Amino acid sequence: MPLLRDEAWALFTEWTKGDSLRRHGRAVELVMRAAAPRYGGPDADVEAWGIAGMLHDADYEAWPEEHPHRIVGWLRARGEAALAHAISAHYTKWNVPYESTLDRALLACDEPTGFVMACCLVRPDGITTLEVASVKKRLKDKRFAATVDRGEVTAGAELLGVPLDEHLAFLIDALRPHATELGLVGRGAAP
Known about the structure:
Elements lengths: L4 H11 L3 H22 L5 H10 L13 H9 L3 H8 L12 H21 L10 H9 L9 H11 L3 H12 L3 H4 L9
Helix pairs in contact: 1-3, 2-3, 2-6, 3-5, 4-5, 5-6, 6-8, 6-9, 7-9
């Protein structure tokens, strides 16, 4: 039986206690759900893509030195080889081959989703009026969200074969309806 979202969420929240990483996992889940039909086609498994997004950093908080091996092992033990592989490949420097669109999409959605969220947090109106030009301007400022690997942001779009501007616009549009849940309404906006 395939892994269900409720079971994945239970594991995620058991292993991940911090609000920031939980919010990131939820955001990447939402973006991956939107990415499934866009990049994976009409037959893409939206549930599996969402679970990959949710669980990609599930072991990072509790076992950072073992990341992503704990979650990958857990998924493999459940027979979820495709999810395990996608998560094992969500960082280019791990040198895991990209075998599927799911693999490439998870890489393409992880780092830039976090970066877009960071951009929202410093804007009075959050994601409401965020545009690609603002995100790209922030990408050039190495001091802003300094832990975000800019190479990963561009590598994912390249692997998917889409222009970075188009992919960033997609991410913004995928996150915007969930602004309140994700805390992206802005510094000056009421929730």
